[in-house]
Amino acid sequence: MTLPGAEVDTLRVEVDGGIATLTLDQPARMNPLGLSLQRRMLEVLAALGADRSVRALVLTGAGKAFCVGADLNTMQAASGDRSLGAATADVMAEVSNPLILALRDFPAPTIAAVNGPAAGAGVGLALACDVVIAARSAYFYLPFMPKLGIVPDLGATWFVPRLVGRARATALSLLGDRLTADVAAQWGLIWSAVDDAQLPEVARQTASRLAALPDGGVQEIRRAFDAAESNTLPAQLQYEADRQRELIDRDAFSEGVRAFLEKRAPDFRSR
What we know:
Layout: E1 11-16, E2 19-24, H1 35-49, E3 56-61, H2 72-75, H3 84-104, E4 110-114, E5 118-119, H4 121-127, E6 131-135, E7 139-141, H5 144-148, H6 156-164, H7 166-175, E8 179-180, H8 181-187, E9 192-194, H9 199-211, H10 217-230, H11 233-247, H12 251-261
Parallel strand pairs: 2-3, 3-4, 4-6, 5-7, 6-9
Antiparallel strand pairs: 1-2, 7-8
Helix pairs in contact: 1-3, 6-7
């Protein structure tokens, strides 16, 4: 498979054993999220999502950082005759926001392996993934308001309060304190924090486990929890019953029951 952007120096793409790895690859600059990189990521995510052999995706950064957020050095150059605010809003609507949705809607489970600082837009990029694992040297940093006078973006205002609660999200956004990986795990912002040297292997092992899920499994879990955000308890109970009505009659459930009775791991078909 030829992947758009596979040869671009700001994004490294590897596919091995059904696991795709996207590496933001500007380590000297701590992997800023420039416009060209975002466009390439959209292209690559579309190509990988259409490949049914891809069962899981890992997103990580090269060097000592995951992503330091927007590429402030190139923002002004891209504005042209528009104000910087107007140009930024247009880029967000056309590229940045679709990138977050592409990660959130990717057909296979996604993992953010946060190898170092995730700052600004890098926080939203990481939290758009299904499972977030961070190296202990990593931290999460929302400098938008205290440093720049703007609101968090790329989904951070949606993800952070839902994961850690409004009080913590508000304080993080107003104070601009760095949230260490260990505390992020304690607060429930991420799945786990691991020693730096262990991160690649833990991410790979986690991706392998997620790759073994039934077809459509990650979409079912995403939709169930999204529905629960707005449903009453009776409505959510009905939602669960409706999904079981359909899912229990699928091959995956039959295989799961057989595997349970035969005391083995289930073997679900490829996506």
